[in-house]
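Protein in question kept in full:
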Amino acid sequence: MTRLTISMPDQMNDWVEAQIATGRYGNVSEYFRDLVRHDQERREGAIAELRGMIDAAEASGISEKSLPEILEQARAMARAKGLVSD
């Protein structure tokens, strides 16, 4: 197992200590391992979503829309998901 040393502002340390005080985590290491696991899951989910979008795009065939129409539709979908703002 690898050992890491990190530095953080007092406010962040207070937050970590408060999370441990709730009893959900036994120590700082458990808290940080949980953060890393959640980050890994989030990223894996995002990759799976992108793969699904690529598969759907490839399965939809060749579009009769113009490139500007396709880009505007993509922007509208991204706005609807809160991924970009106007």
